[in-house]
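User: I'm curious whether this sequence folds into something compact or stays loose and floppy. Could you predict its structure so I can see for myself?
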Amino acid sequence: MTKKAKSNPVRRRPQQRRARQTVDAVLDAAVRLMKREGFGSLTTNRIAEVAGVSIGSVYQYFPDKRAIFIALHERHVEQIDRIIGATLIEHAAASLDTLIHAIVEAMVDAHKGDPELYELLMHEVPHRADGTADFATRLHGAFRLALSSRGGELKNGRDLDRRAFIVTHMVESLCHGAVLRRPSGLSLREATEEVVRAVLAYLRE
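Assistant: Here's the prediction. I'll summarize afterward.
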């Protein structure tokens, strides 16, 4: 019994760098399959084959296909988290106009590189909502902090939490729309400027 447990440990963890490489290979393979063959093509066996790893390596980190879907969403959320955090730090002393412009541009840039992937994540790949909800909470907190330090540039009379809530969802929804849903006659640069204008108009209403 002891020998069996040793030869087949549960959730064995290799060295951290190797583990990260394996996980990234599995997630990247899932993305390639979805783009090339459609969401219906995804099976753990096909993902392992395209990733160039054994099926055992897939199950070591992902107990089932749903865990892969969740990880794809989490990887995207973590990327956006890093971008927003870096933008807020870089523009900590900037004016409200400059800050909003920087955040909107950062969000658009984060999605424009691979809009096909984001479209799949939005509409094809199922996931648990926890990560998305946590991200919305963190983004709300970041915007609330940014707005509270710029009270002199805002009109009084509107609750700060309410402002942060609206701005959070405006930025997220409008940036996604600018990348994925803008009309053919509207360039990405023009759409980005319109998003900035809309957010600032709300804040200064």
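Summary: The chain has two domains: 17-62, 69-204. The chain has a mean pLDDT of 83.
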